[in-house]
Design brief:
CATH class of the largest domain: Mainly Alpha
CATH topology of the largest domain: Endonuclease Iii, domain 2
Bound molecules: iron/sulfur cluster
CATH superfamily of the largest domain: Helix-hairpin-Helix base-excision DNA repair enzymes (C-terminal)
Structural class: mainly alpha
Strand content: under 5%
Number of helices: 12
Number of domains: 2
Largest sheet: none
Order of helices and strands: HHHHHHHHHHHH
Shape: elongated
CATH architecture of the largest domain: Orthogonal Bundle
């Protein structure tokens, strides 16, 4: 009996210490109780699972065969188009790329070109100076290290100038069929919070949430579906909630 008491006593003490350590290191528990809660309340894992199931099923019915909206004929063209799509519409990028790829058909051609010349050709996509520089530098790296080919490897892609997680995931998913993670663009970032799929505000953290919520085999198509919904219904300034297919399950958070 005495032995059991001692054991229980030690166990209780040990758990208390662990709790303290966890509370001190977890970002999720970082907000002090006394401070006014400004973040939306997190949904429980169970209700979020139900939400994900409903969202996934509805989006699969709404967009049964989604595909990449950026026109491309090769991994390299998709890489360049995705770099151009930052802060720009896919429609605009698709208007610019046919002539761009006629003038510069591959990585070698971009590597040889004058950066100013590339900039002129992509001017209407916005931020053209930095995009031209990134495309030029990325092309040079591809020529020097990979024989002008785009590597099908997340880390190698991320090391290219101008390539973030969104671009790497987009290229791997759509050019190679490799599901490396959700493509979190401005639509997916906005929608994930509105629907209630994530409480986070940065693309990296939202991507981590979505990757953990959806099965890996759905990452590529689910990214497209969220983007399509964002364009068609959940437009930033005036979401069309009345006719949105997710009307019944979306939390419609501001
Ligand atoms: S119901 Fe409204 S807020 Fe929710 S995804 Fe649809 S349009 Fe966006």
């Amino acid at each position: 009996m005495a032995e059991q008491k001692d054991k229980n006593g030690r166990r209780a003490k040990s758990l208390k210490t662990t709790d303290k350590k966890t509370a001190g290191t977890s970002a999720q528990n970082a907000a002090p109780k006394s401070k006014k809660e400004t973040k939306p309340k997190k949904k429980s894992d169970l209700s979020r699972k139900k939400l994900v199931k409903q969202v996934g099923e509805t989006l699969r019915k709404t967009y049964p065969n989604p595909s990449c909206a950026l026109t491309h004929r090769s991994p390299f063209e998709l890489l360049v188009a995705t770099i151009l799509s930052a802060q720009c519409t896919d429609k605009r990028v698709n208007q610019v790329t046919p002539e761009l790829f006629r003038r510069f058909p591959d990585a070698q051609a971009f590597a040889n070109a004058d950066v100013g010349e590339i900039g002129e050709a992509i001017k209407s996509c916005g931020f053209y100076r930095s995009k031209a520089l990134n495309i030029s530098r990325a092309s040079k790296t591809l020529v020097e290290k990979y024989g002008g080919q785009v590597p099908d490897d997340f880390q190698k892609l991320r090391e290219l100038p101008g390539v973030g997680c969104k671009t790497a995931n987009c290229v791997l998913g759509n050019a190679f069929g490799i599901a490396s993670g959700f493509v979190v663009d401005t639509h997916v970032l906005r929608l994930s919070r509105k629907i209630g799929l994530s409480d986070e505000t940065t693309p990296e953290k939202v991507e981590a949430d979505l990757n953990s919520l959806f099965p890996k085999e759905e990452w590529i198509d689910a990214s497209h579906r969220l983007i399509l919904l964002g364009r068609q219904y959940c437009v930033a300034r005036r979401p069309k909630c009345d006719v949105c297919p997710l009307n019944n399950c979306c939390l419609k958070r501001p």
